[in-house]
Structure formats: structure tokens, C-alpha cells
Write a structure and sequence with these properties.
single chain; alpha+beta; seven-stranded antiparallel sheet; five-stranded antiparallel sheet; elongated
């Protein structure tokens, strides 16, 4: 996406007032920023975008976190700020940050050569075997790749006509657009791999001498991903998570999967532009580009991440060079990363830049449009959509998307003082069962670092997620608390570390999941939840206590107000007697040798139903019902 001015003029198409009501918004409402809601609603209505998520920070604080529309075209699920989106080429700044971290760790220099006998990838098991005929490739450095100056120009045609095995010609020379052709030419298996995409271009040669020009290159960033793996001895994803994301308490960013059935929990669905292609898996079946036409899983370092808008701005403010939040790179490294390149004054290293000291990047794939920015006025934002526009409206679409946050800022009438980034950093842990009966369960756990925690319970795997800004009525009597959705009930909310949940069915499996949350003055007294990696446990309640009709045991009188007598035959020689209440809790256990005349006093018990359970020396049990009545 070419953006030359960053703050572009545009004319927003004003939608009819009634159309706003059909585009729901979610997230914590900000009274002074209602005009932002209105503008985003109008935008997604104008371009028929199913769903959108927006995060905006001011001076390092996340003050606006909203979502609009629906996660899918069927409009069956509202988009929430906690939903994840593919971010396409917004992945490139992430890769740049990872490279800069390696530089700071002393494992890499930007001047290092990449290919050939002196290159970083000289021992790569696959890439080192590429048949390179253009010797200029051996001049490519890490910096060239970061600045899109390695020598490949994807706008110059290189595909044959037709581009076998497709029955048409692919334009340009970006191999991500022709994955089946790449595997055919490199004699590799489907779906296409990152290495095959790189080898394809290495064997094609360069379009210009490295360092002499600028041409945007997806494959150049794939090479950077291979460099990260080579220098860290880790997978690209693991290095980014361990060195960049985890220190920032970001655990909701992952590499995307190709197919709808494999999407992450809370990931949206993508609405393409109607195009289809033979599956990248080589099945011969035509599929939508957004779900198997492209191999998204081979786009990792150039376009493969999924994220929430909130996590993206959390990452941006950690490399923005401002003192409002601690940066994860030092000042000199940030300056190096954001300085314009010699061949393009509007692109640095993984970031588009301009003379106003604004940085940004966009991303686009079928079903995806994304936009992040860091401004000289200490604002940052991330906008994620599950559809992009490619027709005659495309330029207007991107111009208006660029203008939206600027207009939001300029029309705001009051900035919040809270920070919606202040979710807990660590979840509860070691959740375990203390006691299980036929209709109750007691659990405890080790607290995380949230101020509070919310426990959900369901007879199915927990599928609901609490929403920031909302607190839920919890009740330890199962099904009496708030049903977040699909019978996922709140059974505990508080500052403690244990809970007994009653009203459970015997011999039934129950699922529990616990979420930490913060609620403080700094969060504006909004509950902010940590959703990812929340601990879960499944528990099977005991078989129901039933009334045996075994002739070996008789209990009388029944009902009784004072005492009961237990009469057994020689066939059942009990060693202990337990008295159990309706919740399944043993309230008294008596050794049989301490029972005089086979009589047990029950006058102190409250009126109601109880169970008398006799157990012999080898564990056999007989259970009888009794009813305690008032004298």
C-alpha cells in the first residue's frame, strides 16, 4: 500500500442516521469520544466491512478500545475488542523489531551478508542449495532486506503464460500469489514452504543491484525470518514470542493458519472478494483465496501474524521512543530502525515514515485490511478489518481509513485518564480439586497478579470470555450466577483462592476456567481481564448416593427427631458410619465400635434429608436415606 502523505484529505460519505443502529459497537464506551464511534460506524457501513477493531493510545495509555460489526458475514457474532485478526504486512514491523533485538544482543549486524560462502545462511539446509546464477545476490545484506533494497521487484513480470498449473497468467513476480507454480518449479511438496518461495526468487535472479533502488518485497522479509531462526536457534515465532511479546505481557499474538477449521479461539472469519483458486494443498479443488488459495502459513515473517488491536498498540508503544512506557529497544536502536533509507525517504526498516516523524504500516490480503501508526504527537493506533476493498473504491477506502484516527483525535471532547493496557500479567495457576461429592466440588488455586479473579463453570468446555469493563454476578450455586453465554456460568468472583460450587448433577463432567482481572483507579475502575492462557480443569462428580433396598441394613425410626438405630445382618459387618448432607458433604463419621446399642443421636441436626453410609473393612458401602424432623 502506497501512502505518501500519511494524513490524507478525504470526503467521508455521510450515512443515514438509521444505518448506524445496524452496526453494533462493543468495548468500553468513552463519553468524550462518541464522534469516533460514529465515524467508524459510518466507515464500515460505507464499505460493507463485516467487522472492525480499533485501539488508540495517547501518551502511552490505551484510552479507546472498541469493536464494530460482526466477526462474520452471517452476522451471528458481534466483534469484540478481544477478537484476533490477520494483520498481513503489519507483520513486517514485528520482524524488524525482532531483527533489531538480535542486533542489540550482539548476534547480528545490519551490514552482515546473507547468502554465499560469507553469508548468514551459508549452512542453511535448503536455501544454501539454491542454484544461484545472479552473483549480485551475494551482495545482499540484512539492511537491504529491511529496506526493500535487496534487488527483487515484484512488479516486473516473471511468470509464464499460463502460470502452470493455473490455467491463467499470474501478473508480476511475487511468488506468494502462485504457490502451486512455485512448488512445481522447485520440485517441492504442497503446501509451499517459506524456503521454496525464497529459492524460487533466488534462482530467478535480481532486477537491480542490491542497495541501489527500492522495491517492496514480501520475500525479502521471509529471508529475514530465516535469519532470525539461524541466529537464535529458535523458530521465528518462538523467538518473537520469547524476546518481544512475553516481556510485554502479550500472549494473544500467533502465526495464522490457512483454514477456517484451524482458526484460533476468538479469531474472526474473513470475507474475501469472491475470488477462488486451486487449493495450495494441491487437491485440485477450488477454494477461496483467503482460506487455502494462499498459503498464509508460509507468510510468517512478512505477513503471517494474527493479533488483537489492543496488543498491537501495546507493542508499538514499547518501541515508540517515548518515555511514557519503557521501550524494549534502546534509543539508538529505535533511531536506526525508524531512520529513512537512502533509496526511499518514506520507508525506514519495516516502517513507512515521513518528515513529520510519523511511522506506520498497512497490511492487505483477501479478507484482511490492517493499519498501525505511531505519531510525533505521541498517539498510536491499530485498526483491523476482516475485509479489504479492491475495486474502484480501493483508493478512497485506504485514504479514508488513513484519515479516520486523525479525525477521531481532532473531534474528541475529552480524553480518559485511565489505561486499558493494565490487564494482569500472570494468571492463576495450580488450580486443583480439594473435594468432590456427588453434587458439589471444592477447588483452590494459586492467585495470579490480578486484583480479582472470575471462575466460570459449565457442563461443556468453557467457550465464553468475560468482556473488559463488565463485572459478572457470581453465585457458587451452579446456574444461579450470570450466564455469560452457552450456559457458561459465573460461580466465583473475588480476591480469594478457593471456591465450593454446589447444585451439580451426580456423575457429570464439569469444566472450570479462571480469569484474572484488574480493577483499580488506574483502570478507571473498569475490570480488565487476561483472557489468554487462562487455566482450566475438568471434574467428574461422584455417582449419586442412592437408597439401597439391601435387606442387610435397616434404619428406624425413619423419620426421626432424636435418634436412629442401625440394624445389620451378619452378611454386612460395617466398620464405620458416615452421615452425609444433601450437598454430599460428610458432616460426621463414626467408628462402629464407638456406637453404643447401634444408636446414633441426630437431635442436633437441622430438619431435612440425610444419608447414612455404612462401610466395611474392604470398602463396600451401603447407603440409606433418613429424614430428620423437628421434635
Amino acid at each position: 500500500m502506497k501512502i505518501t502523505g500519511f494524513r490524507m484529505n478525504y470526503i467521508m460519505i455521510i450515512c443515514l442516521i438509521y444505518s448506524f443502529t445496524i452496526h453494533a459497537q462493543t468495548g468500553i464506551q468513552v463519553s468524550g469520544m462518541s464522534s469516533c464511534d460514529q465515524k467508524f460506524r459510518a466507515f464500515i457501513s460505507t464499505y460493507s466491512i463485516p467487522g472492525a477493531s480499533i485501539a488508540l493510545t495517547k501518551n502511552g495509555k490505551l484510552v479507546y478500545l472498541r469493536a464494530f460489526g460482526y466477526t462474520n458475514a452471517a452476522k451471528t457474532e458481534l466483534t469484540q475488542p478481544h477478537h484476533l485478526f490477520r494483520i498481513a504486512s503489519v507483520s513486517k514491523p514485528i520482524t524488524s523489531i525482532a531483527i533489531m533485538k538480535l542486533v542489540e544482543q550482539g548476534k547480528l549486524k545490519l551490514s552482515d551478508l546473507v547468502f554465499g560462502t560469507n553469508g548468514i545462511l551459508k549452512n542453511h539446509p535448503l536455501i544454501s542449495k539454491a542454484r544461484i546464477t545472479d552473483t549480485r545476490i551475494y551482495q545482499i545484506t540484512v539492511q537491504h532486506l529491511l529496506e526493500h533494497a535487496a534487488g527483487w521487484n515484484r512488479d516486473v513480470d516473471c511468470f509464464p503464460n499460463p502460470t502452470s498449473p493455473y490455467n491463467y497468467k499470474r501478473g508480476g513476480c511475487d511468488p506468494i500469489a502462485a504457490p502451486l507454480h512455485v512448488t512445481q518449479m522447485t520440485k517441492t511438496s504442497n503446501p509451499v514452504s517459506e524456503e521454496a518461495l525464497i529459492i524460487f526468487l533466488l534462482e530467478k535472479g535480481l532486477n537491480f543491484t542490491p542497495g541501489t533502488n527500492y522495491a517492496y518485497s514480501n520475500i525479502g522479509y521471509l529471508v529475514l525470518g530465516e535469519i532470525i531462526e539461524s541466529k537464535s536457534n529458535m523458530s521465528y515465532e518462538d523467538f518473537v514470542k520469547l524476546n518481544i511479546l512475553e516481556p510485554l505481557n502479550i500472549c494473544d499474538m500467533h502465526l495464522a493458519k490457512n483454514l477456517l477449521k484451524d482458526k484460533q479461539e476468538r479469531e474472526v472469519e474473513y470475507l474475501g472478494n469472491g475470488g477462488s483458486s486451486p487449493s495450495c494443498y494441491g487437491t485440485g479443488i477450488n477454494v477461496p483465496w483467503e482460506y487455502g488459495g494462499f498459503n498464509i502459513e508460509a507468510m510468517d515473517a512478512h505477513g503471517g501474524w494474527i493479533a488483537t488491536a489492543g496488543d498491537l498498540v501495546k507493542l508499538i508503544v514499547a518501541v515508540d521512543g517515548y518515555a511514557s512506557k519503557t521501550d524494549i529497544l534502546n534509543a539508538a536502536t529505535i533511531n536506526m530502525m525508524s531512520s529513512p533509507s537512502l533509496n526511499n525517504q518514506n520507508y525506514a526498516k519495516g516502517w513507512a515514515v515521513n518528515s513529520a516523524n510519523n511511522w506506520w504500516h498497512t497490511g492487505a490480503l483477501d479478507g484482511t485490511a490492517s493499519f498501525i501508526a505511531r505519531t510525533s504527537g505521541q498517539y498510536t493506533w491499530a485498526i483491523l478489518l476482516n475485509k479489504r476493498i479492491i475495486d474502484a473504491q480501493s483508493n478512497n477506502f485506504w485514504n479514508e481509513l488513513d484519515a479516520l484516527p486523525w479525525d477521531c483525535i481532532s473531534t474528541n471532547t475529552g480524553w480518559p485518564t485511565y489505561d486499558l493496557m493494565l490487564n494482569p500479567c500472570s494468571n492463576s495457576s495450580n488450580i486443583k480439586i480439594i473435594k468432590t461429592n456427588n453434587n458439589s466440588v471444592t477447588l483452590d488455586w494459586v492467585k495470579g497478579n490480578g486484583t480479582h479473579r472470575l471462575l466460570l463453570c459449565s457442563t461443556n468446555e468453557i467457550s465464553a470470555f468475560p468482556l473488559d469493563g463488565k463485572e459478572y454476578k457470581a453465585d457458587s450455586t451452579f446456574s444461579f450466577g450470570t450466564n455469560l453465554s452457552s450456559e457458561n456460568y459465573a460461580v466465583y468472583s473475588g480476591i480469594g483462592n478457593s471456591c465450593t460450587v454446589s447444585n451439580l448433577k451426580p456423575n457429570t463432567k464439569y469444566y472450570f476456567k479462571i480469569f484474572e482481572y484488574n480493577k483499580t483507579i488506574a483502570t478507571g475502575n473498569h475490570a480488565l481481564y487476561k483472557l489468554c492462557d487462562a487455566p482450566t480443569i475438568a471434574i467428574q462428580t461422584l455417582t449419586s448416593i442412592i437408597d439401597h433396598s439391601a435387606s442387610e441394613v435397616q434404619i428406624y425410626p425413619n423419620p426421626s427427631s432424636q435418634n436412629i438405630k442401625i440394624m445389620t445382618t451378619q452378611k454386612f459387618n460395617h466398620t464405620s458410619v458416615s452421615i452425609i448432607n444433601q450437598t454430599g458433604t460428610v458432616i460426621e463419621k463414626i467408628d462402629s465400635k464407638n456406637i453404643k446399642d447401634s444408636s446414633i443421636e441426630i437431635s442436633d441436626y437441622k430438619s431435612g434429608l440425610y444419608f447414612i453410609q455404612l462401610q466395611d473393612s474392604v470398602g463396600n458401602k451401603i447407603t440409606k436415606k433418613i429424614i430428620k424432623i423437628e421434635p
